[in-house]
Design goal:
The protein is α/β, with parallel strands linked by helices. It contains 27 helices and 41 strands. The strands form 7 sheets. The protein has a 10-stranded mixed beta sheet, with helices on both faces. Strands 9-10-8-11-12-13-14-15-16 form a 9-stranded mixed beta sheet.
Length: 823
């Protein structure tokens, strides 16, 4: 891409404010943190409810960025760069992408639906790549921002595009259609995802079909609702010629009719009729979703007129799609970023940005990279660009694997090259991986999963998977409830409610939250040692920890005269000035805090004191989640207003005030003051069932089946023989127990796990390291995945059954359970 800024003035309907329009840019960016920003970057400053990139323009100018699309020019940036001023920068990004898409004329496959878009896209890329130079959406870039960023990556060497479009409500698809302009439309499975954004199923389908307004062919699964919607759609958006290319399990009038489906040994064989001929196709999956996705791919191959032998050969090689970047603990104190199934230029950019956001634990950055395919560039141009990316991102060491990347070794500083994965593995011990963050990124054919297995820290097979995207979603959900000037403190105490404190703190710092909250000083020290720069408040500081709090620049909550005097004594000894402290008021919780009768003594102690500075005044609501106690909460808020106002007036200070926790944010919005404290809501748990549907699950606790056995009627299972089989019963043993945080009360058929999307109830007592489940009605085997909690059962379901709260379920998960973070 090389675009003249002058041409964009009319495209974006922008006002030009700058010194020179005769400038070419070759990189579009919306992320101020990216190390890829530079003099050839056009930075589009997106402004939303929760974030405003205009705030970072001055910082970007200092880094060398000179060209911006903005809604306004910040005072501190005027006269320092070139600006295209528009009414709405998101619209400008989309308009630019639409303009850029029109510069190219080759087939574009547009995918939409509720489920399967990304998998079908990745599979089509695999199936068609031997014959086409493909540009596709990286990862799940299917949103109002992701789609334009995907399309902007097209270059003149591409001859086929595959882009997915995702929407969550009405009036969104029309914008994406103008950007993608598909020539082949594929409608994947329509399910319940984002139901809350539409009046009904018909409205959702109607909105998704708008992607295909000018599409000559639409591929879809026939059913009554889709047929009806398509009939109205084609009548409203008439196009000649337009072909509707359908498939079905039940409707013989479909172009491709599935006569039979037989599943055996993780493989499904379908018989289908097409053009009066009958074919048999073997699909290497047994689940119905994968079979449907494979049939969507079959339809595209038939449209492209592939012969049956080619279709069968390629479909048999389909593979499970890795749709996420995972962060794992590695050997020798390394961090591993696992992106081992993908190697294209666009996703490399994304992975390097992710590497930058995750590398605070280890300053040294290493990239293990395979040959890159389907870039659209010549090898010379491609590896020059890759080398520049590596340089821009300050990578300390590059390990290339593949004949092509090895031939360009001279372009990379501090690089080691191997011709294949086996050669690398044979020399892995000599490479001395130690205290570094390692991005592992390779094309599937290089089998980099073997490298991940060797470099990953060895722990037992139970893991807690943490979805970082869900944390971002939940954070933004609560941010959307706040007034523009209200700050947000996020609680990462108790190891991030069991989810992993440091990694979540890194993400929150990435999102520029205002404060982090921890319970004890050692938690804060761990975060500071991990590289966290955000201010951290310690809620329960012990007086013995005050010297460490001062040393690590933590900020203590002070809740008693005794504690205040103890801290002031140490602060005077160290000659501190204006050290930040936080004053806790007790307004009715009666746990910690200054009560009303101690306020005069508090004021007397602090007045004219220059050793410390009251950074905030806070209190804690006792019943913000229970509106039956509404009046009590209001009395707390009123008392907080009275006492904090007295402190502000008599001490002549201007502190941050905060009293709302997660439930308070939703139930008492008028008491937001200057800051709120977000806790359990960040991790996807709400006390309000109506609010719960807007939050995303963050943590999924997973294990595997260690052993399967069948016991006869009358035999028992586990300690104390608390389960007696009334009939022949198939039992699976799972390597997780109460030492991992699973309550013994969850045993004896109270609780269940999920295997192959089916409930398997726990039989007998939960042991220290194991539990047993009844799988008599589940087709499963040793090594199969087991969900302990996540989507089903949820921690809310578990808490209700155990008569406790979700906090306890989450915080109880032992740190011996490995945490895996992914996007």
């Amino acid at each position: 891409m090389s675009i003249n800024l002058k041409s964009l003035i009319s495209v974006l309907n922008a006002e030009w404010i700058g010194s020179n329009t005769d400038i070419f840019v070759d990189h579009i960016s919306i992320d101020s943190r990216s190390l890829q920003n530079g003099s050839k970057t056009l930075f589009i400053a997106l402004s939303g409810v929760n974030n405003d990139a205009h705030l970072y323009i001055d910082e970007l100018i200092e880094k060398g960025v000179q060209n911006f699309v903005v809604q306004y020019i910040p005072e501190n940036a005027k006269g320092k760069a070139n600006f295209l001023v528009v009414k709405n920068t998101l619209n400008a990004l989309q308009q630019f992408a639409s303009y850029y898409r029109n510069l190219f004329d080759f087939p574009i496959i547009g995918l939409t639906g509720s489920n399967g878009k990304t998998i079908v896209k990745e599979w089509l890329n695999f199936l068609l790549s031997p014959d086409y130079n493909i540009i596709r959406s990286p990862k799940s870039y299917n949103s109002q921002v992701g789609v334009p960023l995907s399309v902007i990556a097209i270059n003149e060497k591409h001859n086929l595009g595959i882009f997915e479009a995702g929407i969550s409500t009405v009036n969104e698809m029309d914008k994406l259609e103008k950007i993608i302009k598909p020539t082949i439309g594929v409608l994947t499975n329509i399910g319940s995802a984002h139901d809350e954004g539409f009046l009904n199923l018909v409205q959702k389908i109607d909105e998704k079909l708008l992607l295909f307004k000018d599409c000559p062919i639409i591929i879809y699964q026939k059913n009554e609702v889709v047929n009806s919607c398509l009939s109205q759609f084609t009548a409203e958006y008439m196009m000649h010629p337009r072909k509707l290319f359908s498939w079905s399990f039940t409707d013989e009038s479909a172009d491709v009719f599935i006569l039979n489906k037989e599943t055996k040994n993780e493989t499904t064989t379908i018989q289908y009729q097409y053009k009066e001929e009958i074919f048999s196709l073997e699909i290497p999956f047994s689940d119905s979703a994968s079979v449907e996705n494979a049939i969507s791919c079959l339809m595209v191959l038939l449209h492209f007129k592939y012969d049956f032998a080619t279709i069968q050969n390629r479909v048999q090689m389909l593979y499970p799609v890795q749709m996420r970047l995972e962060v794992k603990n590695g050997i020798n104190n390394c961090s591993i970023i696992d992106d081992s199934y993908s190697s294209d230029f666009q996703s490399l950019k994304i992975a390097l940005d992710f590497l930058e956001s995750q590398q605070k634990k280890n300053a040294t950055k290493t990239v293990i990279l395979s040959d890159i395919f389907q870039s659209g560039f010549s090898n010379e141009e491609l590896y020059s660009k890759v080398a520049q990316l590596i340089s821009d991102n300050k990578i300390n060491r590059v390990i290339g694997i593949g004949a092509t990347i090895s031939s360009f070794k001279a372009k990379f500083s501090n690089s080691i090259m191997f011709h294949n994965t086996a050669e690398f593995i044979s020399q892995i011990e000599s490479l001395n991986f130690n205290n570094e963050t390692i991005l592992i990124k390779g094309a599937r054919s290089f089998q980099f999963e073997e490298i991940v297995a060797l470099l990953e820290e060895k722990t037992h097979e139970t893991v807690l998977e943490i979805n970082l995207d869900s944390i971002s979603h939940n954070l933004n959900y609560y941010k959307s409830k706040l007034a523009n000037d209200v700050k947000i403190m996020v609680m990462v105490k108790a190891f991030g409610y069991g989810n992993g404190g440091l990694e979540i703190a890194k993400l929150l710092e990435h999102h520029k939250v205002d404060y982090l909250g921890v319970a004890f000083a050692d938690e804060g020290i761990s975060l500071k040692n991990g590289g966290i720069k955000l201010p951290i408040m310690v809620l329960n500081p012990e007086s013995t920890s005050f010297p460490s709090i001062i040393q690590y620049q933590l900020e203590p909550e002070i809740y008693s005269i005794k504690g205040l005097n103890a801290f002031l004594k140490i602060a005077r000894e160290k000659n501190l000035k204006d050290f930040p402290i936080h004053i806790k008021l007790d307004t009715g919780m009666h746990r910690l805090g200054f009560e009303e009768n101690t306020i005069e003594e508090l004021i007397k102690t602090l007045i004219d004191n220059t050793t410390v500075k009251v950074k905030s005044v806070l209190s804690h609501l006792a019943t913000s989640d229970d509106l039956n106690h509404y009046d009590f909460v209001i009395s707390q808020i009123n008392l907080f207003e009275k006492l904090s106002s007295k402190l502000i007036s008599e001490l002549n200070i201007n502190p941050i005030r905060h009293i709302l926790n997660t439930s308070g944010i939703s139930n008492f919005p008028s008491a937001q003051y200057n800051m709120v404290r977000l806790g359990i809501g960040l991790y996807g748990v709400s006390n309000d069932p109506l609010e719960q549907k807007y939050l995303e699950n963050v943590g999924t606790l997973k294990s595997i089946i260690s052993q399967v056995r069948t016991i006869p009627s009358g035999d028992s299972v586990g300690y104390g023989r608390r389960f007696m089989a009334e009939k022949e019963t198939k039992i699976a043993t799972i390597p997780i127990g109460y030492a991992d945080g699973i309550s013994r009360l969850w045993g004896n058929q109270v609780g269940f796990v999920t295997i192959k999307n089916q409930k398997a109830f726990i039989v007998g007592s939960v042991c220290m390291d194991m539990l047993m489940v009844d799988v008599s009605n589940i087709d499963c085997k040793e090594g199969d995945s087991v969900i302990i909690f996540g989507e089903s059962p949820t921690v809310i379901e578990m808490a209700e059954a155990l008569k406790t709260i979700p906090y306890e379920i989450m915080a109880s998960i032992s740190q011996r359970v490995k945490r895996v973070f992914f996007r």
